[in-house]
Every structure is written in C-alpha cells, then in structure tokens.
Design a protein that fits this description.
By secondary structure, this protein is mainly α. 56% of the residues lie in helices and 11% in strands. The protein has a two-stranded antiparallel ribbon. Strand 1 (40-48) and strand 2 form a beta hairpin. The protein starts with a helix and ends in a 10-residue tail after the last helix.
C-alpha cells in the first residue's frame, strides 16, 4: 500500500466514524434488542499470505454452534430481519472502519479471503493479496450479484463450497488482478463512488 493510499484511508475512516457514530450506535442497539448478543460477527481473514486478522461486521445471522465457509442458500433461513436490511444496504460492514484504521484493510481492494482458500489456491491468492484487501473493489462491484445468485441457488453447505471454489474464486481473482494493474487514487475514488451509487461507470475489461 502506498503512503498516499494509507493516508487517504486514515483520514476518510476517521471522518466517517465521526459522522456515522450515531448510526453505528443505533444499529448496535437494534441488534442487541431484537436479536441479542453477540452484536458483532468476527471472522478470521487474510490480509496477505501468512498474515491473518480478525474482520468485524455487524451480525446478520442467528448464531449456531459450528459455522464455516461462505454464505449460500443453505444459510438463508438464518438471516435475521435486521440482517436482511443490513446486508442489502451494506451497513453490516460499518465496523470495518476499525479494520481500516488498524491497517488490516483498505477502502478499496480485493475482499479479504478466508485462510483455507488462500492455502488451497496459493497461485491465485499470492498475486491477489499483493494488494491490501478492501471493503469494496472491482470484483465486488462487477461480480457480487452474480456470486449472490450462484450461491443462493445452493441448498447444502457442500454445494455452496463447490460452487464458490469452482466458479467464484477464479472469476474474482481475475478481476482483482485487473484492479491491481490499474490501481490509483483516482481509480479507487471511482470504485468508491460506484459502490455508493450502485453503478459501475466502466466497461468490463478483458486484460
């Protein structure tokens, strides 16, 4: 990560925490009152090969004794009423502002993967994680809805895992590498604006 990108992340994260602190408190209270504890979902992710960190989100699912892997159709019935709204608006990711302050992630970059995918796909994630992971990014904007559609059709954890590994991991890695080759402060700004307004004013590239 360049010093300019890190400075941009720090300043914007601090500003957003100050501006959005009432929203963060209200969401936390709603989850606590309606769904109980825990308020946050904390998951180990990788910011680089061999460098794990704990990613914070607002909890959007009912907790179970054992849970692992990505979310597919097999987990849909566990999403709470609060969770559906938070996921649709991406407000569940507000706690990641703390991860940005810590330097675990950036605002823009590849989504931070689970350890097991990094270990199982070293040829893909080695180059991808040369860029600091982010809250949003090119792969998120272009492929997120496709990924949701593919995984929503899965009825078992095994099917979800197979679809994610075979369809989603390679497709997102290709897009993450396109981002890495074109990364700049201006490109990051475009991707952030596209995330806010849910539109991507870019043609899909083949390089």
């Amino acid at each position: 990560m360049t010093p300019q990108k890190r400075l941009f992340d720090l300043v914007l994260a601090l500003v957003l925490i100050l501006l959005l602190s009432p929203v963060i408190v209200i969401i936390a209270l709603l989850i606590l009152i309606r769904d109980g504890r825990p308020v946050f979902y904390v998951s180990e992710r990788m910011k680089a090969v061999g460098q794990p960190f704990m990613l914070w989100k607002f909890r959007t699912m009912r907790t179970v004794a054992r849970d692992s892997g990505v979310s597919g159709g097999d987990k849909t019935d566990r999403i709470t009423a609060n969770g559906r709204f938070l996921r649709r608006t991406r407000l569940d990711e507000l706690p990641q502002l703390l991860n940005i302050l810590r330097g675990d992630i950036s605002f823009v970059g590849p989504r931070p993967p689970l350890r097991r995918y990094v270990e199982d796909f070293p040829d893909l994630y080695g180059p991808v994680l040369q860029s600091r992971p982010g809250v949003t990014g090119l792969a998120t904007l272009i492929y997120h809805r496709t990924e949701e559609r593919l995984l929503a059709a899965c009825s078992t954890a095994e099917e979800t895992e197979a679809v994610y590994r075979n369809r989603c991991v390679p497709a997102k890695a290709r897009l993450d590498m396109i981002y890495a080759r074109n990364q700049s402060v201006c490109f990051d700004a475009v991707l952030m604006l596209a995330t806010v307004f849910r539109r991507l004013p870019l043609r899909r590239r083949n390089n």
